[in-house]
Amino acid sequence: MKEISKLLDFRPDIKVVDATLRDGGLVNDFFFTDEFVKHLYNANLRAGVDYMEFGYRADKEMFDVEKFGPCKFCEDDFLRSIVGENNTDLKIAIMADVGRCNYKEDIHDRSESPVDLVRVATYLHQIPTAVDMIEDAKKKGYEVSCNIMAISTAQESDIKVALDILGKSPVDVFYIVDSFGSLYPEQIARIAALYGEFAEKYGKKLGIHAHDNQKLAFANTIEAVGDGVDWLDATYSSMGRGAGNCAMELLLGFLKNPKYNVYPVLQFIEEHINKLREEGVVWGYDLQYLMTGLLNQHPRTAIQFTKDGRKDFAEFYKEIIAQD
């Protein structure tokens, strides 16, 4: 039974991270207008959001700059064109994806950059490189978090080894990541307890990044809040890869800290997010994403199903269950 105070009171350690541009950028190849990005930045300021993730710091030798918008690369000059010197309480984050980022060259010293937080994304088999990235970012002066992706497919023993290795690194936050949207609140509670053992042992914070394949991203996030997880990812109107993420408007409506204000989020959705939908940008829960979530599969097949405009859901289920 959870302590009721964890749900009705607020913890000053809670941090809300807006991942709209990064996870949402996966559905439109990061082609956001500067106006959209600036308005989102201002909405986050007014809403009291703690961190705003602007996108990836991707390697330009691996990714064609003509095929992606600027939030795929999040160059410091681009960030400054939006936030200036960012003399605000809102901190700026970027994601560095193991194997897709030339971190030694492209992530500059914190004193030369508007970025506050580097979020390292890794799979279990990439942990040694992730640790090197964490150490590199820390030496350069950044806050650092680490997202271990696809943990719903991992063995608990492997997760324990990874957390022990990461615990010995200078990382600040371990993230629980439900990449496939396949986890349930009961599982989140057990995973949070497991992560919590290592967080307590090594003096780290815990975060959660949830996907909405089974319409559980919000439920799993508030479950994690009750389990002592402090860093909470969300996106405006759930905008994110495939089924999307925990909705910012739901999360801020739930959190009791008076510093958060849901009204600017609702305004931004009305004025800017809905326009993206009208322009044909597609994301959010649908049957194809439910199916991959139920089967604990990466949603790439469901994303292709969506791009192809298919509606033969039963046939799609037969196709993907044969791959399971």
Q: What report would you give on this structure?
A:
- The protein has 324 residues and is an alpha/beta fold.
- It folds into two domains: 5-278, TIM Barrel (Alpha-Beta Barrel); 287-323, no CATH class.
- The chain is built from 14 helices and eight strands.
- The protein has an eight-stranded parallel beta barrel, surrounded by four helices.
- α5 (103-106) links the parallel β3 (91-97) and β4.
- It starts with a helix and ends with a helix.
Describe the largest sheet.
8 strands, parallel, barrel
- Which structural class fits the helix and strand makeup? alpha/beta
Give the helix level as a range of percent. Answer: 40-55%
Residue runs with pLDDT of under 50 for 5 or more positions = none
Q: How confident overall, as mean pLDDT?
A: 96
Strand content: 5-15%
Q: Count every beta strand, where a strand is a DSSP E run of 2 or more residues.
A: 8
What is the CATH T-level topology of the largest domain? TIM Barrel
Q: What order do the strands of the largest sheet run in, or round the barrel if closed?
A: 1-2-3-4-5-6-7-8
CATH architecture of the largest domain: Alpha-Beta Barrel
Helical run tally: 14
**Cα-based radius of gyration, to the nearest Å:** 19 Å
Just give the CATH class of the largest domain.
Answer: Alpha Beta
How far apart, in Å, are the first and last alpha carbons?
36 Å
CATH superfamily of the largest domain: Aldolase class I
What is the string of SSEs from the N terminus onward? HEHHEHEHEHEHEHEHEHHHHH
Form type: globular
How many distinct folded domains? 2
